[in-house]
Specification:
It is a single chain. It contains 70 helices and 2 strands. It has 1395 residues and is mostly helical. A two-stranded antiparallel ribbon has the order 1-2. β1 and β2 form a beta hairpin. α7 packs parallel to α10, α8 packs parallel to α11 and α66 packs antiparallel against α68.
Length: 1395
């Protein structure tokens, strides 16, 4: 009796064939425990027939499992495992007898039952417990085994079952069958059980169980022809279970490695490659799983995948981007794991190049995820790239820095950074040094080539050389004979006066050797008259022949000259054989030297090309450092750090841009910047306090301070960076000590510049730790304000800068303090020192320090002003007057801050102390808080009144100098000095800050100076002062706002830049209302200066973040820029609008703008403005509602579509809408409808130009024709009337069918237009007045108002000519309407167009 594997579990109850085994009787659940006990007893004396005897019992357990407790099932399972063990011992002991039916049946039954039990127990283990059902789905991992479900440890039992089957199948069990092939149904049963176990994600994570399953599948595919079935099952499993992709890759790796059987993996790869593109596109889950599988296989088994790569390459063209990503990863892993190294054969090198080409092609893939993936792949195989590929890959990556997706830019920056760090060219990438080296090595190569040429000439015989140069010589002779005499004289060589026959022959030989045949021929011809009768002379007959112009004679003369040149050339001395051998040896050495030198030169050229590439990336990286995406900023910082470390040219520009990020609000970006500077200049690999490291740190800090101060103007940012170093203790005591020594010049080779820079660094560090300065005041006083200060005012300025870091809350310095007296002396005595240019910076810092840290600053400053004034008035010097004007202006500003700061705070503190004493002596009341607030306001008002009225009184110190300032400004001819006028303008602005009355009185003068001054410095100072006045006196400055905007058109770039900075500050701080005048700032987007364009871009980026500020003025900006009087070209307009509309990403705002722009078509009459509106519409994003709005308001722009440029822009709109709305249901129909309407309106407008011209002659304006012709909708009543009157028209049959005219094609519209033209020439048909009335009634229902001339057409006037107008569109029936032009008179064409 044979046991056949059933198709289903229930099939065993019926016998399919006479010899097949079937279950005779299913045992009831009540009797099962007894039967299992009998089975356990029989297992003690196991025989082949034990399984056959108790098969029904084990089968019945599975049938009754749902009706009983799990105890019976688990007991039966333990017995079944023992049966498998006993069966293995029996088979192994008998070495598997040939064709033993009893053993075969026992084996089949045992394995079948085991697979069924495993399936049942696996299902039971995954069944949720009662507590889980009640509590609901829990977060996190769910336990596989549960005490409520099973008492056995299924994790252990599962592994045991797989081991038992593996042991059995590892035996030569095929001998039990005849022929010796195991039943395929049994193999499929085992394989299905294995795959079902792997479908459980928990099982796939159990290492021991998973490895046993892999070995079992390996035995099946290796010994029992399960390879193809395993591949099919694996394919289906990966499609259904996400984790199976990586699991199957690992399984196939085990089979390939341990069983030496790669066929299964190959079969599965072939199956994947044969899948259709449509299937993969529809089933995205399967495509994703197959992608993971291919990637894992390429990593685990690259040798298996490489021969089949040609089958998978078509997947690079498939639509699912996940498959393209997978194939790109596969190519990268194949290059890294297989196709790398110098030992590759030519075919492998060719394959590697093809793979790299494929990767480079997909850098420009249409999908952003693919572009980012290919950049990651190339980054991973940088070490495997050939040296010649670095520049090519870098150039491709450079283009991706401007990608619209942040993720692509991120990986592009990573790739460039990796290329720098792994470059094979060296540790220094400075192009200046490379250029010098390249020129030197190139000259060496040229010299070697010249030597090789001479050596080659020495080795070859003269006859061989002559044969080689004969074609060029023939051409030269013929050219010389055909040239006219004048040109010949111009180009000929000069025969020397002392020349001999031998010297001429030698010169001719040299010319021929140097390949200058034309010169040799000319020299030979010139020697004819000088050396007559010599061996150089041609025969007289030959000369006569040369005078002839016949072509045949010319050919003969050429041959004579060639013969003579050959004779002269062959007469040179032939080298001996020994010389030839020596020359041959030298030639071999030269070839080797040339080969090596060419390698060097090529290497240097590639290095220079790579350096230039990295250098060209720096400007884009500087822009990305200002990106709003943190990934761009962080990766750009890493790129800049790597560029600085490798000495890339212009890397300091990137470092300067990176320094500005110290003010970033993003803590991660700020931390990245600080860590970058620490890595480059502070910490390195040594500790902070390392004595050996400190001198290098000091040198780096001094160099950076000089660079950021002199070249980039970033001292404020650098000051914050140094303070961060001190806060984080990156700068330790050793560095600070060396800085003090450098300031006092105790270090060797310390210059004056280094001393001042060291003092600046100490002042910067004191911002974070004031004790650095306060504990060294004596050093500052002795070295900074002593004799050195009288020789260097800038040193004293830096001392004041350091003193300002002292806290003002401590003890204030008295007026007789050494520091105060020293500064006063420097200011009063130093104003007369005209040899130094640092008095004004010193004065500003000194006055600021006096007001900041002295107890009676006004008295000290008053004394300084009086003394300096007396010194200035005693000497008539423009420079001294300029210095004094700066002094009084700065004193006015500091007096203002002093009163509003220290004095007001002190008054409030006194009032608070007095109030506190009053409260202690009296009982407080509920009005205390109100009284306190009133007192504070009173004190503020007192201070404001003092500032407003007292500071600039005529008898006050500052008020007495106000007439001086106005006099200098008004008398520009007398005081025509650039510095004096700039100082007076700035000081007057500071005076105007004090009093609103003074500001109001001098505003006209101030703006006159701003507009008419010829000095850029005066204008910039005036603009800066005005910005502060707007904050101080906004009401007085508000009427003058247009004058500020006007400076954006100034001729000077510096003035425009200053104005833009001021307006940016005022607008973003809500001090100036955002109105239509902001279009002047929009024009800065196309300014010739790059810095101004960049500032304008940043302004609009910030403005877009302020709610609806930019949205509210967009229409006004567009309207102003469209005005021809503004002078903005179409290209500039497009550039400006492209930048502005890039900030309108809100769908609701875009929808509103679309509607407003469409309505604006009607309000404009200029074609240029129509095109500008169309361009603006093409820059917006479109939603389904936006497309509907385009359809609803189609009549607003339908008559404008005749213009080709407007039509193309609207087609761009259709394409954008189609790309965005393509996946949405219902959107395709809307887009098709819009596209069809645009096409018909455009074609109709082109074909109707002749109609429009004819209609204009009859007195109907073109705009009215467009209105009458552009009606889109017809009521059913009008359609019915058209049919009734169809007999009145001789061509009405073409327009009466509703079904055929529901959507007209472009060709049909053209045909109808032509028919109507011919009809109009022969005669017009008069429709009834009733039809015209219907048309007017219908038009009243439409959105557009009906012009009066159409209404007046209801009155028939037969004496006037009639005009037939046809109205046709894709969704209406064509009809003819007669409109009488009687109500209005004929006017010129221009006037009618205006109407």
């Amino acid at each position: 009796m044979e046991f056949s594997i059933p198709i289903s579990f229930a099939d065993l109850k019926t016998k399919q064939h006479p010899n097949d085994y079937s279950v005779s009787d299913v045992i009831s659940a009540r009797l099962l425990p007894t039967k299992i006990a009998e089975l356990r007893s029989d297992l003690k004396q196991f025989e082949h027939s034990t399984v056959l005897t108790h098969f029904d019992t084990l089968y019945s357990v599975l049938c009754a499992e749902n009706d009983q407790e799990n105890t019976t099932l688990e007991s039966a399972w333990s017995c079944l495992l023992k049966c498998l063990g006993k069966l293995y011992e029996a088979l192994d002991g008998n070495c598997v007898k040939m064709a033993d039916s009893s053993l075969r049946t026992s084996l089949s039954m045992s394995i079948y039952l085991t697979t069924e039990y495993v399936d049942r127990l696996e299902t039971l283990s995954n069944k949720p417990t009662t507590e889980q059902i009640v509590a609901g789905k829990k977060k996190g991992k769910r336990k596989v085994e549960s005490a409520d479900n099973m008492s056995i440890d299924w994790t252990v039992e599962r592994c045991k079952s797989v081991k038992c089957i593996t042991k059995l199948m590892s035996l030569p069990v095929q001998r039990l069958w005849e022929p010796p092939v195991v039943d395929q149904n049994l193999i499929n049963c085992i394989g299905s059980c294995c795959f079902k176990l792997l479908h459980n994600p928990v099982t796939a994570k159990l290492k021991d169980t998973k490895e046993e399953i892999f070995h079992l599948i390996g035995i099946l595919v290796k010994r029992h022809k399960y390879s193809l079935s395993a591949a099919v099952q694996a394919l289906e499993s990966m499609k259904s279970f996400e984790h199976m992709a990586s699991t199957m890759a690992e399984c196939l790796s085990v089979i390939t490695r341990e069983f030496s059987f790669p066929r299964t993996a190959q079969d599965l790869i072939r199956e994947i490659s044969s899948l259709s593109a449509d299937y993969l596109q529809k089933d995205s889950v399967a495509a994703k799983s197959y992608s993971v599988f291919l990637t894992e296989v390429a990593d685990l088994m690259p040798d298996v995948l490489l021969p089949l790569i040609s089958l998978l390459l078509p997947l690079l063209e498939s639509d699912p981007f996940s498959l393209r990503n997978a194939m790109l990863s596969v190519l990268g892993k194949l290059i890294t794991n297989v196709l790398t190294g110098d030992e590759l054969n030519p075919n492998q090198k060719k394959m590697r190049e093809e793979f790299i080409d494929t990767l480079c092609e997909h850098v420009h893939d249409c999908h952003g995820f693919v572009r980012s993936k290919v950049l990651q792949v190339i980054t991973s195989l940088v070490d495997s790239l050939p040296v010649t590929r670095y520049s090519e890959v870098g150039q491709l990556t450079l283009g991706r820095l401007n990608d619209r997706l942040p993720n692509v830019r991120k990986y592009a920056l990573q790739l460039l950074t990796t290329l720098i760090s792994h470059n094979p060219y060296g540790a220094t990438l400075t192009d200046k040094e490379l250029v010098e080296t390249l020129e030197s090595e190139t000259s060496k190569l040229a010299e070697l080539k010249s030597r090789a040429q001479r050596t080659l000439t020495a080795v070859i015989s003269p006859a061989e050389i002559w044969e080689a140069m004969l074609p060029e010589t023939v051409s030269a002779v013929e050219e010389c004979l055909r040239e006219n005499s004048e040109k010949l004289e111009d180009d000929s060589v000069v025969l020397e006066s002392d020349a001999t026959v031998d010297s001429v022959k030698e010169d001719i030989n040299k010319l021929l050797t140097d390949c200058r045949q034309s010169k040799a021929v000319q020299l030979l011809l010139q020697s004819q008259q000088v050396f007559a009768g010599s061996e150089l002379e041609l025969s007289p007959s030959e000369e006569d022949h040369m005078e002839e112009e016949d072509n045949s004679q010319l050919e003969g003369n050429s041959q004579l000259i060639l013969d003579k040149l050959k004779a002269i050339f062959l007469s040179q001395k032939v080298p001996e054989s020994s010389a030839e051998e020596q020359t041959s040896e030298d030639g071999d050495e030269l070839k080797e030297l040339m080969r090596k030198q060419e390698v060097v030169v090529n290497y240097l050229r590639e290095t220079y090309k790579f350096c230039d590439l990295i250098k060209s990336a720096m400007p884009t990286v500087c822009i990305l450092l200002c990106s709003k995406h943190s990934s761009d900023v962080v990766e750009s910082i890493k790129f800049v750090v790597m560029s600085v470390q490798f000495g890339v040219t212009d890397a300091m520009n990137g470092l300067a841009s990176m320094l500005k990020l110290i003010w970033s609000e993003d803590s991660n970006i700020k931390l990245a910047v600080v860590e970058a500077f620490k890595t480059l200049y502070i910490l390195s690999d040594s500790e902070t306090g390392d004595v050996k490291r400190a001198p290098q740190v000091v040198a780096s800090l001094i160099g950076l301070t000089k660079a950021f101060g002199e070249l980039y103007g970033l001292l404020t940012s650098w000051e914050e960076m140094v303070a961060e170093f001190v806060r984080s203790e990156a700068i330790g005591s050793q560095v600070l000590q060396l800085l003090w020594q450098s300031f006092t010049k105790k270090l060797d080779s310390t210059t004056d510049s280094d001393s001042k820079l060291s003092l600046q660094l100490l002042a910067m560090a004191a911002k974070a730790r004031p004790g650095i300065i306060s504990s060294n005041l004596d050093i500052l006083l002795a070295d900074g304000l002593g004799e050195r200060a009288t020789r260097d005012f800038l040193l004293a300025r830096d001392v004041c800068f350091a003193l300002l870091t002292l806290p003002s809350k401590g003890t204030l310095l008295p007026a007789d303090h050494n520091i105060v007296t020293s500064l006063s002396r420097l200011l009063t005595e130093g104003i007369l020192d005209t040899t130094q240019s640092g008095w004004i910076p010193l004065m500003e810092q000194a006055v600021t320090f006096i007001y900041h840290l002295t107890d009676v600053p006004d008295e000290t400053v008053t004394q300084i002003v009086k003394e300096t004034y007396s010194l200035v008035t005693s000497r008539q010097n423009i420079l001294l007057l300029t210095r004094f004007v700066c002094l009084i202006g700065h004193v006015a500003l500091r007096q203002l801050t002093y009163l509003e700061g220290r004095v007001l705070v002190e008054l409030k503190a006194r009032r608070k102390r007095q109030k506190q004493k009053t409260i202690e002596t009296t009982t407080g009341s509920s009005s205390d808080e109100l009284g306190q607030t009133t007192t504070d306001d009173l004190e503020t008002e007192v201070i404001m009144k003092v500032i407003e009225t007292e500071l600039l009184r005529e008898c006050s110190l500052l008020g007495s100098f106000l007439p001086l300032l106005t006099h200098i400004i008004q008398e520009r001819q007398r005081y025509d000095d650039r510095g004096l006028q700039a100082a007076a303008t700035l000081s007057l602005g500071k005076f105007m800050l004090l009093s609103s009355d003074i500001c109001r009185q001098h505003l006209r003068l101030f703006f006159t100076v701003l507009e008419r001054s010829s000095y850029v410095e005066v204008k910039t100072n005036a603009i800066v002062a005005l910005s502060d006045m707007v904050f101080r006196h906004p009401n007085e400055l508000e009427p003058w706002t247009p004058n500020l905007y006007a400076r954006l058109r100034d001729e000077s770039p510096l003035v425009r830049r200053s104005t833009l900075m001021v307006m940016t500050r005022l607008i973003l701080n809500d001090m100036v209302k955002v109105k239509g005048q902001i279009s002047e700032i929009a024009r800065c987007l196309v300014d010739p200066e790059h810095a101004i364009r960049r500032m304008a871009e940043q302004f609009f980026c910030e403005l877009a973040n302020k709610g609806r500020a930019l949205y509210n003025v967009l229409l006004d900006i567009v309207s102003r820029l469209s005005d021809p009087q503004i002078g903005v070209t179409d290209k500039q307009f497009q550039t400006v609008c492209t930048e502005l509309f890039s900030h309108t990403n809100n769908d609701k705002q875009s929808e509103s703008l679309i509607e407003r722009f469409l309505h604006r078509f009607r309000a404009t009459t200029d074609e240029r403005q129509w095109r500008h509106i169309s361009f603006c519409l093409s820059r917006l994003t479109y939603t389904e509602r936006s497309v509907k709005k385009l359809l609803e308001l189609f009549s607003c722009y339908s008559d404008k579509l005749a213009d080709e440029q407007i039509y193309e822009l609207f087609m761009v709109i259709v394409d954008k809408a189609n790309q965005k709305l393509k996946p949405k249901p219902g959107a395709k129909e809307l887009i098709l409808e819009l596209s069809a309407k645009i096409e018909v309106a455009h074609t109709k407008g082109i074909d109707g130009e002749e109609e429009l011209e004819d209609a204009t002659v009859l007195g109907l304006s073109q705009s009215n024709i467009s209105l009458a012709k552009g009606r889109r909708k017809r009521s059913s009543r009008a359609k019915k009337r058209n049919k009734e009157n169809s007999s009145q028209s001789q061509y009405s049959d073409d327009d009466s069918d509703d079904s055929t005219c529901s959507r007209l094609s472009v060709s049909s519209v053209s045909q109808e237009t032509g028919v109507r033209r011919s009809t109009r020439r022969t005669g017009a048909v008069k429709p009834s007045q009733k039809l015209l009335t219907e048309l007017i009634e219908e038009s009243e229902e439409e959105e557009d108002a009906v012009p009066n001339f159409i209404r007046s057409a209801q009155k028939p006037k037969s004496s006037k000519p009639k005009l037939i107008l046809s109205s046709s569109d894709e969704d209406e029936v064509s009809a003819e309407a007669v409109i009488s032009p009687a109500p209005f008179q004929r006017r010129p064409l221009r006037q009618r167009n205006k109407s």
